[in-house]
Amino acid sequence: QCITHCPVGALSERDDTELVWDAIADPEKIVVVQVAPAVRASWGEQLGLSPEEAKVGKILDSLKRMGADYVFDTAFSADLTIMEEASEFLERFTAGELKERPMFTSCCPGWVRFVKSQFPHMVKDLSTAKSPQQMFGAVMKSYFAESIGVSPEKIFSVSVMPCLAKKSEREMELFYGEYAGHETDVVITTRELVKMIRSAHIKPDTLEDIPGDNPMSVGTGAGIIFGATGGVMEAALRTAYFTLKKENPPAGTFKQVRSTGFQENNGIQEAEFDIDGVKVRTAVVSGLGNTRELLKKIERKEVQYDFVEVMACPGGCVGGGGQLIHDGKELAFERGKNLYYLDDRSEVRCSHDNPDIKKLYAEYLEKPLSHKAHLLLHTEHQMT
Ligand code: SF4
């Protein structure tokens, strides 16, 4: 039976859990799993876990118990996305490329597909940075494969996402020297994760809060808020601020980009910041109806921004089509608050301070926007 719950375009739900079980059972495959930031805000809702109890480390424990070889928090590669995207923004901004139109975020496949089909002349304004899911897959099949001494073909890369559109995003292929396969081999949703936990007869109250595996065990507060509308913008501004001022912004400096409700300002948060004499005009929008209105205003030159974050689902990924469903209830903004709470309590709150990210650049990628970073972490947004 096909169920359509995707708010971004009539996607039929496909159950891919068998593919994960098959990979786990295959002794030739090394199964690595990443778990997106928004999943932690929803997975416990039908397993009897409160938001405080439903920690991401317990998801990682459940995946290990089911047979995954390595488990990771996608907050790590959300930090990596920020390193690349904030650097790209500053480069395009200082080169004067954003005078006519802003740079748009590119980590939401629902939005990327929308702009390609409805506003194709704006595709060139998208950031070239891949999404955290795809960056993680690319790093898995290069840096990580090398670090454990196996060929990329042996790595079977699974992601747990709040999103149905991510299932088609996984079609992106990785050419790294030789063809290295898909960056992501299978995507399962939060609902499919819960189904797997149940079918493995794992009792949720026995799960332990374990860390992710090395060398990508750390995700910062900036990576966690990726799952809520405004989170990508806030995380990027924290790192852009550091790049310009050589110090971290005081807590709450960019809170203005957060949205507390879908109905407010037609789902659009506008804000202007002065960072060391540099004026940056930003907008954050979620929901494709609101996005269409915003793009028309930009085309008519009624508004002007330098940097715009777009998420197709109202409230961002926390309200994604792969999350648990409670008929008649819209929980996106409640779940978003949970992510901001976790960010507040994070030891490290800026992507550029993530020690595992620093190590990745020092040992492998050299620096943001390097040749190797471009090869692995950026895309040209083909009009397919
Ligand atoms: Fe997927 Fe998040 Fe975009 Fe929704 S907002 S389509 S969940 S990436």
Write the element-wise H/E pattern from the N-terminal end onward.
HEHEHEHHEHEEEHHHEEHEHHH
Contiguous low-pLDDT stretches (5 residues minimum) are none
Bound ligands, named by name, code or SMILES: iron/sulfur cluster
Q: Into which percentage range does the β-strand content fall?
A: 5-15%
What's the CATH class label of the largest domain?
A: Alpha Beta
What would the CATH topology of the largest domain be? Rossmann fold
Overall pLDDT score: 92
What is Rg?
19 Å
User: How many β-strand stretches?
Assistant: 10
Number of helical stretches of at least 4 residues = 13
Query: Can you summarize the main beta sheet?
Result: 4 strands, parallel
Portion of residues within helices: 25-40%
Structural class: alpha/beta
Overall number of structural domains: 2
**Gross geometry:** globular
CATH architecture of the largest domain: 3-Layer(aba) Sandwich
Give me the side-by-side strand order of the main sheet: 2-1-4-7
| End-to-end distance | 28 Å
In short:
This protein is of the alpha/beta class and 384 residues long. It has 13 helices and ten strands. The structure holds iron/sulfur cluster.
Structural description of this entry:
With 384 residues, the chain is an alpha/beta fold. The chain is 37% helix and 14% strand. It contains 13 helices and ten strands. A four-stranded parallel beta sheet has the order 2-1-4-7, with helices on both faces. It is globular, with a radius of gyration of 19 Å. The two termini are 28 Å apart. The mean pLDDT is 92. The structure holds iron/sulfur cluster. Residues 8, 108-110, 162-163, 165-166, 311-313, 316-317, 320 line the site of iron/sulfur cluster.
